[in-house]
Design goal:
single chain, alpha/beta, eight-stranded mixed sheet, two-stranded antiparallel sheet
């Protein structure tokens, strides 16, 4: 039946257009998942979480232009391996400051915490290394990023660009070429992702994003938070990874490495 076939093709085209239409709104996703849109509201994360500062290898942060890595992690019994692999295969030659924002698994020992910190301090000699303990882990990596932002503001750090990296990345071989390519592309682009995805709408996966200073400030103000006990974690990921990144892609000069 030609009508049945035509209707099927129309439905397929409509589904495909979700990823291709630049004017696509989040309403499709929100309706399907029954998320209350106005429940999400940007707020200052520092008002709802507490963090401790432990600083190491610090020189003056006020008189240099910082290329910064914000490394977000939840320390568990496996973190020593994950962090070691990340450090071993990464290139920190153009990085001035690394801000490690960590939360703790309830069963983790002080010995593992110290060993994880030592990996940064002993293996990255030429960088400032700053540790911030996200005590409540209320908003996961997005809260950790904003915690680091609060530290940057309070310590009057002048930054050139920032890498947002989390412990989802476990390199198995040298990734120096990715750092070098990002450094080169940041001369012409405002925002860089490692991997582009078209799931739901076009965005870059949030486990490694790089951006210039001006965009970093806007990125922080547009992050959304909500009571995790009432709403699933995936809703926060959608708002802050998928929807926010798509907004930035439309507004700024952006590119992905892969």
């Amino acid at each position: 039946n030609n009508n049945i076939f035509d209707n099927l093709i129309l439905k397929i085209n409509n589904l495909l257009s979700i990823n291709l239409n630049e004017d696509f709104s989040s309403s499709y996703y929100l309706d399907k998942h029954k998320i209350v849109e106005d429940f999400f509201s940007p707020c200052k994360i520092i008002d709802i979480i507490k963090y401790d500062i432990v600083s190491n290898n610090i020189v003056s942060l006020e008189n240099i232009i910082n290329n910064v890595i914000i490394y977000s992690c939840h320390l568990t019994k496996n973190s020593q391996f994950i962090i070691n692999e990340y450090i071993k295969y990464s290139d920190f030659s153009n990085i001035n400051t690394i801000i490690v924002v960590y939360s703790l698994d309830q069963h983790i020992s002080n010995e593992i915490i110290c060993k994880c910190k030592d990996l940064f301090i002993k293996n990255i000699k030429k960088c400032n290394v700053i540790f911030l303990n996200d005590k409540m882990n209320k908003c996961f990596d997005f809260g950790k990023i904003t915690t680091a932002y609060d530290y940057i503001l309070k310590h009057k750090m002048d930054i050139n660009y920032v890498h947002l990296i989390n412990d989802s990345i476990i390199p198995t071989k040298n990734i120096h070429h990715i750092y070098k390519e990002i450094d080169t592309k940041l001369k012409d682009y405002d925002f860089i992702g490692i991997i582009e995805s078209n799931e739901i709408i076009k965005h870059y996966q949030s486990w490694w994003l790089s951006m210039k200073k001006e965009l970093f400030y806007e990125y922080i103000t547009k992050l959304c938070y909500f009571n995790i006990s009432h709403y699933p974690h995936n809703d926060m990921v959608f708002k802050n990874e998928v929807e926010l990144c798509n907004y930035i892609i439309k507004k700024y000069n952006t590119i992905s490495i892969y």
